[in-house]
UniProtKB/TrEMBL annotation:
Official protein name in the record: eEF1A lysine and N-terminal methyltransferase
Domain of life: Eukaryota
Organism whose genome encodes this protein: Penelope pileata
Pfam families to which the protein is assigned, alphabetical: Methyltransf_11, Spermine_synth
GO biological process: methylation
Residue spans of biased composition, Basic residues class: 434-444
Length: 686
């Protein structure tokens, strides 16, 4: 501890370094990694005939090892400390005749202009740039100016650094503005010898002649696992890329020491594009009793299933890890923008990297199992990709579910882990008279999903509950044939209004959708169509309801809100806050018939905000039911304007069974995997 300075400013003091090296003696002091770790990077930029300047050499063995390995011999070392210069001269005088040591201040060097091809700095910039005070920055500017002066055009300034944000920002900003090419290498360091938790980097600044005008900047990063540099578009993006590598190193360090109380997530990016290729979640299960074979496993989530509760939520992943029986489970989600050959290629690609996330004490040669559902990586086919001014980037994709069924999904890429709309696809029937395929003949490719939409099936649990809410209507006629007027705000893929239209033969459905792109998507990709009983109004739902309230009251038997919020900073993703403000809800009540029902899909993670929403709803609607969706944040609220319409859950279940019987008698297609009565079993009267 007595070797450390009393203040960061002492790092620039000759007296401090003289005292440091007198107390330390002849023992080498290696800042940021030993020569074997730095050599793979340095050998790319230091040639045998180069004249090399080492600034702030200290008593590091780096120069000696460059010399002894034959990488370079014409090396001039300078340091502000006369003590260490004398020590190093004595150590190398007889062994290395072409290498010299000089006591010199690098802020005012005595060398002629353009004298060196390489300037090498191992930790010196970090030692000087301890803060962003004006005096410190002025000293760094003088250091950079001197390096610029003594380097030839085409020369390289190699700076070994921990890449603290303020240090990297200063170095990259200065030299890129001077027209130099900037490349940042991450140094591969061994776990046993690594001195710092943070990774070590080498900045490679190559001097070009400064061109008149604004020449394009050359900014690149080269992560430790790849030789080919990756070009980045701005200094800010370069700093972000380095910060990502530092975050990964901190995560690995944390995971290597103890079980992690909370789930950690990180992205592994594609080497060529820099885009996320895998998203990893690390889940520890303290309750699992460790043994040799159950300490660590990797779980590959099939493509398209990363949005499911078991894989897409913290609680779901915790349950998955516990049921798998491993002390640490790393779940791996595959990205839709990437291509994957199969489970074997993914395993080969990930094996080295995931071992960096292994629990403490795992033997280095321990074989780690790769798990999945059904043993494959699933199927995902992107059918359509576009951008909407209102909804942003989105995709329509077909994915294979766990029961070999295929589903079509609409995903907004601003919230890529949430399925916006979903429809089941029907397998095509063979043409009449076609013979069955013989077993020995080649089967059709499983990667090609069917394309016909199954309009009889509601994929989303909250849509099923919203339809079940129609049982609250006090219609004297059986519901399937009752003349219902229904308003749906929020189209998405159109599954909800389509289901109501097709199963309730006398219903008239009006849909309000603010985004015209969604109407096009629903029509082209989800089998939606308009007709005499189905009309879409492209408008803001707030404005449309206000207009209806001003024109004619009591128009609708049922009003359904299934509207997502574009503001992800609010703790309520459905609906937008303006849709649950009291003045607007009063307009909704105005256009609802006295015996009607207002059905609201509420997705709110903020407990206080949710309670305030419920309080406003109670003020406007005297009768309020809630149906919570198991395993999801969604809650379906059924609001009625008349307290006389109150029914208990037993009565609601009876009406639901009556509705199901009527649908079956009318021959309406109805999937047996869900039942309306079940949808109303867990209804609570608020």
């Amino acid at each position: 501890m007595e070797l450390l300075p009393r203040s960061p400013g002492e790092f620039g003091s000759a007296r401090y370094w003289d005292r440091f090296f007198r107390q330390r003696g002849q023992r080498p002091f290696e800042w940021y990694g030993a020569f074997p770790e730095l050599c793979p990077v340095l050998r790319k930029y230091v040639r045998p005939r180069d004249k090399v300047l080492v600034v702030g050499c200290g008593n590091s063995e780096l120069s000696e090892q460059l010399y002894d390995t034959g990488m370079c011999e014409d090396i001039v070392n300078i340091d502000i400390s006369d003590t260490v210069v004398r020590q190093m001269r004595e150590r190398s005088a007889s062994k290395r005749p072409k290498m010299s040591y000089l006591q010199m201040d690098m802020l005012q060097m005595g060398f002629p202009d353009a004298h060196f091809q390489v300037a090498l700095d191992k930790g010196t910039l970090d030692a000087i740039l301890t803060d962003d005070e004006e005096a410190t920055l002025a000293k760094v500017d003088r250091m950079f100016a001197e390096i610029n002066r003594v380097l030839q055009v085409g020369g390289r300034y190699l700076c070994v650094s921990l890449a603290q944000a303020h240090v990297l920002k200063k170095a990259v900003g200065h030299f890129s503005q001077e027209g130099w090419a900037v490349r940042v290498h991450e140094v591969a360091t061994s776990g046993d010898e690594q001195r710092f938790v943070l990774p070590v980097f080498v900045y490679v600044m190559t001097k070009f002649r400064k061109m008149p005008g604004s020449a394009p900047q050359i900014l690149e990063i080269c992560p430790e696992e790849q030789d080919k540099p990756l070009r980045v578009e701005s200094a800010e993006r370069l700093l972000e890329a380095v910060k990502d590598r530092q975050h990964y190193a901190l995560v690995c360090s944390q995971l290597s020491k103890a079980p992690c109380g909370e789930q950690l997530s990180l992205d592994l990016c594609d080497k060529a594009s820099g885009r996320p290729r895998y998203t990893l979640h690390v889940v520890d299960s303290p309750a699992v009793k460790p043994s040799r074979d159950n300490r660590f496993a990797i779980f590959i989530i099939p493509q398209g299933r990363e949005t499911e509760w078991l894989f897409g939520t913290e609680e779901g992943r915790r349950q998955l890890a516990a049921s798998a029986g491993f002390g640490r489970l790393v779940t791996v989600a595959l990205h839709r923008e990437q291509r994957y050959e199969g489970m074997a290629s993914i395993q080969a690609e990930l094996s080295g990297k995931v071992m960096e996330l292994a629990p403490p004490g795992l033997p280095a040669q321990q074989q780690v199992p790769f798990l999945s559902v059904g043993g494959d990586i699933g199927v995902r086919a992107v059918r359509h990709r576009d951008t909407s001014p209102l909804s942003g980037d989105f995709v329509v994709e077909d994915v294979k579910g766990d029961d070999a069924c295929y589903f079509r999904r609409l995903i907004f890429l601003s919230n890529r882990n949430v399925v916006q709309s979903e429809a089941r696809l029907l397998a095509p029937a063979p043409p009449p008279g076609q013979k069955k395929r013989r077993k020995d003949k080649k089967k059709p490719s499983p990667a090609e999903p069917p394309t016909a939409i199954d309009k009889s099936y509601l994929c989303c649990e909250h849509h099923r509950a919203m339809v079940a809410g129609l049982c609250l209507l006090g219609s004297p006629e059986p519901l399937p044939g009752a003349p219902l007027a229904v308003l749906v705000v929020g189209l998405g893929g159109g599954s909800l209004p389509l289901f109501v239209h097709d199963h309730f033969s006398q219903s008239r459905v009006a849909v309000v959708e603010i985004d015209p792109s969604m109407l096009e998507v629903a029509t082209r990709w989800f089998g939606f169509s308009q007709g005499e009983r189905m009309q879409v109004h492209v408008a803001d739902g707030l404005d449309h309801v206000a207009k209806l309230a001003a024109e004619a009251p009591a128009q609708y038997d049922a009003i359904m809100f299934d509207v997502d919020s574009k503001d992800l900073t609010v703790g309520m993703s459905c609906p937008p806050p303006a849709f649950v403000e009291k003045p607007f809800l009063q307009k909704v009540k105005t256009i609802l018939k006295p015996e009607g029902v207002f059905v609201l899909n509420l997705v709110c993670r903020d407990a206080r905000l949710k309670e305030s929403v419920l309080a406003v709803l109670r003020e406007v609607f005297p009768l309020l039911y809630v149906r919570r969706i198991e395993g999801e944040v969604n809650e379906i609220l059924f609001c009625q304007p008349s307290p006389e319409a109150r029914r208990d859950p037993v009565e609601l279940g009876a009406r639901a069974r009556e509705l199901e019987g009527s649908l079956q008698q009318l021959g309406r297609p109805w999937d047996s995997s869900y039942v309306l009565a079940d949808m109303l079993q867990a209804v609570t009267i608020l």
